[in-house]
Write a structure and sequence with these properties.
Layout: H1 2-11, E1 13-16, E2 19-21, H2 32-45, E3 53-57, H3 62-72, E4 76-79, E5 91-98, E6 103-110, E7 119-127, H4 131-143, E8 146-156, H5 161-167, E9 172-180, E10 187-189
Helix pairs in contact: 2-3
Length: about 190
């Protein structure tokens, strides 16, 4: 997705060989027009899949997932990293490790929102080691839902997340694929869509 790649080139900041900071348009401040274009692109790619739910993890995946769900005309569900007082029903729960934050979190979705009748599109902002997406797949599988694909805004292709997810039989569609962050420069691979 050329618009996303261009924005990374202009506003992304390399903080080391493994970290790309995109907080001015994805992970802290959100660029609504760009997120809408990203969500629409995912919706186009998965338009014929019969998706019934779009699933993401809080917080940075919410914007692109919401736009994808809107375009697909289906609900969007986000896994929560902390259980709130109102989450008193039966929960689907798993643990995920965050590469960027260097912390393991319990994520949860209320069982009432996913069932074995659902076909799910998972959306996430980054793919590094694949743990967040793997955790979302596990939550969907606990509900008996079918995961049709995983849409990734930015993939760090030099890490093993894609390989992990593909070994699980998942279809991965990344809009921007980064080959390297060496020497403070972002090098790209061809995106999937």
């Amino acid at each position: 997705m050329e618009e996303l790649v261009q924005r990374i080139k202009e506003d992304g900041h390399v903080l080391g060989e493994g970290v790309l900071k995109v907080d001015s348009f994805v992970t802290h401040q959100v660029a609504p027009d760009l997120m809408e274009a990203i969500g629409n692109r995912f919706a186009e790619v998965f338009a014929k899949a019969g998706i019934t739910k779009v699933v993401t993890i809080e917080a940075s995946g919410i914007a692109p997932a919401l736009f994808a769900a809107k375009k697909l005309d289906v609900p969007m569900i986000f896994a929560r990293k902390a259980k709130s007082l109102t989450m008193d029903e039966e929960l689907l729960t798993t643990s995920v490790y965050s590469f960027t934050k260097q912390v393991t979190s319990q994520i949860s979705i209320s069982r009432k929102f996913l069932s074995n009748e659902d076909k799910v599109l998972i959306i996430d902002d980054f793919l590094a080691n694949g743990q967040a997406a793997k955790g979302l797949v596990e939550l969907c599988q606990q509900a008996g839902a079918e995961v049709d694909g995983i849409g990734i805004v930015i993939e760090k292709s030099f890490q093993d997340g894609r390989e992990l997810l593909e070994e699980m039989g998942m279809r991965v569609v990344s809009l921007a694929r980064i080959a390297s962050l060496k020497n403070g420069a972002v090098e790209f691979l061809e995106g999937d869509a």
